[in-house]
């Protein structure tokens, strides 16, 4: 009996262990993630990490939960580049959070086409207070075929040409107004052992901001409009080739800091290069102002950070007032969410989003919220100079080009970023860039 | 639990005959088999099906016939990535095998401080790939990294920004991460070689180097095959380290096939072509593993200790 009992007990144990594991293995495929696991009256939101936005969003959600004890709203923060992949996968797997953070444009269109986000048009018509409070122009990138699929949040985010005033004073030079000024400044700063431009090139969309401004200054906004509309060979437009060539000249003249293509924007190392005086200039989003104010040890507060409009290009046709960037960020409602979750989300949109506290918090960090009637508030802050510049770029530019990687569909955007990476390390020519990108037109 | 209960009952009813025993042993494989089917066979079949469809990861899945295969198999980027993968495989093997063999022989010995040194060598085994990549990225940063910090111009190369250097760095970091593991395998192998062979060789007048080449290496034949299989097939799965370290850049210089698959599928929303690459990776992996097992000779049960 002894010999017989032993194997059977052992087999029983192995199965007893295996069975729950198996059940776990099978059910774990089916259970919902942090996004969908919400019970009635609760809702979830995913947003980007990194201050100041993270703290503002967290405070706003906490305040909402305090005010509505039965509505439990949770928020999870992710790094920018990681988030863009994660949200796509979560939506595809039907595990999206109730509120989906995004940039509008081509990505939002892919969600809308797949029926993954709710059409908010009629809700916004019923609640004109919510809609009228926000910049009308901010709804552009959220509108697909005349229907609004997302609500603008946070702040206008034009791309700003920053420079380190201290380094400019030491070198006794003025900020650039034209492209030849830029090239001569590159020479000046390289001779002084300071990198002319900081750039977080491994993130690729950072390098893309350069192309966006150059395309505009050389050929005007129509060049990209043709690309966006899928016109054949639009990337081979002479203005596009000229802009690409000029960028490569800047790379060849060591315009960007050594190792720029190993720096990621998520680590904020590109900003650190500017405020630690290792680089003299930087083209970056207006959101970095808040970051530099936080981390720069008085760099912003002591008036060492300067900014000018992006220089003009000799012979170019683009209006120097034109700007590029993100009109703002957006929140959409997942169509997979339950009715209770959707109700909570809409309540959050009405009560908390861009309310007075949030607007004040954004202005304090040096951002221009996408809210009407804040001109007076902006003038009263210590950052009024910068805010005025951002307001000018974001609200009054004759043409405001949305970030290309957000405007285009995800497949074309990835091809674009990959080719930009190759363009900036000079492994392809402007013509090769154009022909590679022409293949993505109309996809 | 119902399965477990049912099995237990049937298990008790089996008579303790020879056939009954093998029956019991045979169904012991079920848990492993279920896991293998659920987490390997079904996803693999799914990928194979997806490779014949169009899917952006979000919307509807539509059949595409052989279109994805046709486009991937003529795509120069795919062949570039495949070439890089094979290069990583070969270079990794060439760098890691001699070093881990020597370290394995060393750590199997009885020298002074050996235990302390062995612990130091095995340290990288405890770190996750992402942590290693983040650490190396910080150390190799041309502006804030080791070179700038120590003021050594030699170390201030544009390590991850220059395509050739970046590829070399990737090979180095992979080696740094995996040599400890293979050292451990070789250490175990060396410790299994009977002392008496070495004693006999000493009596015959063989020196240390001769002993290494004529006893240690031949005796480690199967260990070398195991380690090489893990290394080469493992090269087909390197992803996390390179993804964090270089993201495939600069200019696709480190965009190996697994990374290419991920970027195509999850960044460019081209799940169909990404699935084609996944199937190619599985095929290469299986072929390699089979080939390396063949190298070990037809009779895997043959003893290396004949005549002992």
TrEMBL record, chain A:
Q: What is this protein called?
A: Extracellular solute-binding protein
Q: Write down the Gene3D superfamilies for this protein, in alphabetical order.
A: Periplasmic binding protein-like II
Q: Which InterPro entries match?
A: Bact_solute-bd_prot1 (IPR050490), SBP (IPR006059), TAT_signal (IPR006311)
- Which species is listed as the source? Mycetocola manganoxydans
Automatic annotation (TrEMBL), chain B:
Q: Where is the signal peptide?
A: none
Transmembrane stretches in the record are 25-50, 78-103, 115-136, 165-186, 230-250, 270-292
- Residues of the ABC transmembrane type-1 domain: 82-292
**GO process annotations (BP):** transmembrane transport
Gene3D superfamilies associated with the record: MetI-like
Gene Ontology terms, cellular component aspect? Answer: plasma membrane
What Pfam families does this protein's entry cite? BPD_transp_1
What name does this protein carry? Sugar ABC transporter permease
Species source reads Mycetocola manganoxydans
């Amino acid at each position: 009996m002894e010999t017989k009992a032993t194997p059977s007990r052992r087999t029983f144990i192995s199965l007893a262990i295996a069975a729950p594991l198996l059940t776990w293995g099978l059910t774990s495929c089916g259970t919902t993630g942090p996004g969908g696991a919400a019970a009635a009256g609760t809702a979830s939101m995913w947003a980007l990490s990194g201050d100041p936005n993270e703290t503002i969003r967290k405070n706003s959600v906490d305040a909402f939960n305090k005010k509505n004890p039965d509505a439990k709203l949770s928020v999870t923060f992710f790094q920018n580049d990681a988030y863009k992949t994660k949200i796509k996968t979560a939506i595809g797997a039907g595990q999206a959070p109730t509120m989906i953070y995004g940039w509008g444009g081509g990505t939002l269109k892919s969600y809308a086409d797949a029926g993954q986000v709710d059409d908010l048009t009629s809700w916004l018509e019923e609640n004109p207070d919510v809609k009228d409070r926000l910049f009308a122009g901010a709804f552009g990138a959220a509108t697909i075929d005349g229907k609004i699929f997302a609500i603008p949040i946070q702040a206008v985010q034009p791309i700003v040409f920053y420079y380190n005033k201290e380094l400019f004073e030491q070198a006794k030079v003025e900020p650039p107004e034209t492209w030849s000024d830029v090239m001569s400044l590159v020479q000046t700063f390289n001779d002084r052992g300071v990198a002319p431009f900081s750039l977080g090139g491994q993130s690729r969309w950072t390098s893309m901001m350069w192309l966006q401004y150059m395309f505009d200054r050389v050929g005007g906004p129509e060049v990209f409009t043709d690309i966006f509309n899928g016109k054949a060979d639009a990337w081979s437009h002479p203005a596009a080739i000229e802009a690409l060539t000029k960028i490569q000249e800047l790379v060849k003249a060591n315009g960007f800091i050594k190792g720029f293509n190993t720096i990621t924007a998520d680590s904020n190392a590109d900003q650190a290069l500017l405020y630690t005086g290792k680089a003299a200039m930087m083209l970056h989003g207006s959101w970095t102002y808040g970051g530099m104010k936080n981390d720069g040890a008085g760099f912003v507060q002591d008036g060492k950070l300067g900014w000018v409009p992006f220089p003009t290009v000799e012979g170019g046709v683009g209006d120097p007032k034109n700007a590029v960037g993100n009109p703002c960020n957006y929140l959409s409602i997942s169509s997979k969410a339950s009715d209770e979750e959707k109700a909570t989300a809409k309540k959050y949109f009405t009560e908390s989003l861009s309310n007075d506290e949030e607007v004040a918090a954004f202005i304090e960090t040096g951002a221009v919220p996408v809210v009407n009637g804040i001109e007076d508030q902006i003038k009263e802050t210590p950052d009024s100079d910068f805010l005025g510049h951002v307001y000018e770029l974001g609200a009054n530019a004759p043409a405001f080009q949305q970030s290309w990687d957000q405007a285009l569909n995800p497949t074309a955007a990835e091809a674009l970023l990959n080719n930009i990476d190759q363009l900036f390390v000079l492994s392809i020519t402007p013509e090769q860039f154009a022909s590679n990108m022409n293949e993505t037109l109309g996809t | 639990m119902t399965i477990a209960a049912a099995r237990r009952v049937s298990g008790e009813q089996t008579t303790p005959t020879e056939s009954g025993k093998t029956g019991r042993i045979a169904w012991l494989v079920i848990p492993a088999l279920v896991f293998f089917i659920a987490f390997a066979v079904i996803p693999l079949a799914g990928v194979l099906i997806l490779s014949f469809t169009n899917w952006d990861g979000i919307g509807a899945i539509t059949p595409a016939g052989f279109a994805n295969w046709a486009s991937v198999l003529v795509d120069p980027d795919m062949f570039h990535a495949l070439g890089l993968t094979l290069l990583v495989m070969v270079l990794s093997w060439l760098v890691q095998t001699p070093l881990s063999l020597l370290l394995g022989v060393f750590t199997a010995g009885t020298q002074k401080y050996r235990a302390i040194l062995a612990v130091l060598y095995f340290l990288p085994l405890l770190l996750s790939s992402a942590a290693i990549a983040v650490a190396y990225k910080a150390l190799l940063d041309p502006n804030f990294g080791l070179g700038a910090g120590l003021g050594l111009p030699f170390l201030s190369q544009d390590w991850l920004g220059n395509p050739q250097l970046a590829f070399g760095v990737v090979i180095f970091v992979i080696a740094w991460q995996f040599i400890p593991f293979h050292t451990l395998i070789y250490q175990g192998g060396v410790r299994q070689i009977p002392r008496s062979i070495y004693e006999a060789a000493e009596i015959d007048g063989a020196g240390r180097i001769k002993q290494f080449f004529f006893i240690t290496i031949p005796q480690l034949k199967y260990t070398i095959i195991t380690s090489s299989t893990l290394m080469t097939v493992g090269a087909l799965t390197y992803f996390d380290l390179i993804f964090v370290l270089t993201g495939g850049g600069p200019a696709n210089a480190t965009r190996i096939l697994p990374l290419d698959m991920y970027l195509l599928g999850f960044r460019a929303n081209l799940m169909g072509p990404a699935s084609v690459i996944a199937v190619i990776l599985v095929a290469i992996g299986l072929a390699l593993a089979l080939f390396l097992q063949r190298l070990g000779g037809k009779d895997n049960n043959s003893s290396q200790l004949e005549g002992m």
